[in-house]
TrEMBL record:
It comes from Anaerorhabdus furcosa. The lineage of its organism: Bacteria, Bacillati, Bacillota, Erysipelotrichia, Erysipelotrichales. Residues 272-285 form the SRP54-type proteins GTP-binding domain. Belongs to the GTP-binding SRP family. FtsY subfamily. This is Signal recognition particle receptor FtsY. GTP binds at residues 105-112, 187-191, 251-254. Signal peptide: none annotated. GO terms for biological process: SRP-dependent cotranslational protein targeting to membrane. Its EC number is 3.6.5.4. GO terms for molecular function: GTP binding; GTPase activity; signal recognition particle binding. Its main location: membrane.
């Protein structure tokens, strides 16, 4: 029930629309598939993934002479589950002495806020946490993160605005080693003016932390604003090409009914969604849970 709140809007729209179809269709036919495609597109599943879903549903339906709407829905849920599970979602683990996590994403995606939410998340698990304000690009990002850190009672390692993020990252790593910190969260800048530039910047950040702490960064999470829909997806592609994104934090799910983006991310980018953001507070973060997600669509 707690998780479900994250998909309330998805439930109210995609779930509701699918339910409404029950009154119109006795089974799967062309009109059904057409309307299903529209519902999927309206919830940001994307055309490629929507077509794939409909194609699979059609194939499944062909095995039966008649099929009730309820069965059609249960087939649909099976297909969505398969589609989701075809890309593995490795369990999140933090086995290193210091686990370095990079947060990447464009300005305004909710990176800094997600960083605050993660501080809270890890602290609640009893881990020691530090943050590095390496987003030296966006004006105010450093202060914003420092304020969160203060409020949440963790140390924030910071440099000056417009300074080289790599130097503050090195400071952060050294501080984490001295203080035996379990989790080091790094809020990095994602300047998207061109891919080459982004690639160079991220590569440099990887190099410097890798020199300080073996294997670091251990996780690279891309913060994606769920309200930007398919646009967000193309941004994600650029980041994916520029660096080894290992997971997605889908922010602002409280503000959108377009929960279908989760499926598009999995199907197109093959990156697991690990967390969803549900508001502006530090407590507004939930681990992504496939069952509650599917439940919100089907019930
Ligand atoms: P950054 O530029 O990527 O660091 O973005 P911020 O963390 O500053 O977030 C941009 C705006 O989105 C801020 O006003 C945040 O309060 C807001 N925000 C971030 N995450 C969420 C979320 O999950 N839900 C809602 N409603 N707002 C969010």
């Amino acid at each position: 029930a707690v998780y479900l709140s994250g998909f309330k809007k998805t439930k109210d729209s995609m779930g509701q629309k699918l339910n409404d179809m029950a009154y119109k269709y006795k089974g799967i036919n062309d009109e059904f598939l057409e309307e299903l495609t529209i519902v999927l597109l309206e919830s940001d599943v994307g055309i490629e993934t929507a077509d794939e879903i409909c194609e699979r549903l059609k194939r499944k339906a062909q095995q039966y002479s008649t099929i009730t709407f309820r069965y059609a829905m249960s087939f649909l849920m099976e297909i969505l589950q398969d589609l989701y599970n075809e890309t593995p979602s490795p369990e999140l683990e933090y086995p290193h002495e210091i686990n370095v996590i990079f947060l990447v994403g464009v300005n305004g995606s909710g990176k800094t806020t997600s960083c605050a939410k993660l501080i809270r998340y890890f602290k609640d698990q009893g881990k020691s946490v530090g943050v590095v304000a390496a987003d030296t690009f966006r004006a105010g990002a450093i202060d914003q993160l420092a304020r969160w850190a203060d409020k949440l009672g963790v140390t924030c390692i910071k440099g000056k605005e417009q300074s080289d993020p790599s130097s503050v990252l090195v400071d952060g790593c050294r501080w984490a080693k001295e203080n035996k910190i379990d989790i080091l969260l790094c809020d990095t800048a994602g300047r998207l003016q061109n891919k080459q530039n982004l690639m160079n910047e991220l590569a440099k950040m990887h190099r410097v932390v890798g020199r300080e702490i073996e294997g670091a960064p251990h996780h690279v999470w891309l913060v994606l604003d769920s309200t930007t829909g398919q646009n967000g997806l193309s941004q994600a592609k650029i980041f994916q090409e520029a660096t080894n994104v290992s997971g997605i934090i889908l922010s602002k799910m409280d503000g959108t009914a377009k929960g279908g983006i989760v499926l598009a991310i999995k199907n197109i980018l093959h990156i697991p969604v690990y967390f969803i953001g549900l508001g502006e507070k530090e407590t507004d973060l939930r681990p992504f849970d496939l069952d509650s997600y599917l439940y919100s669509i089907s019930e």
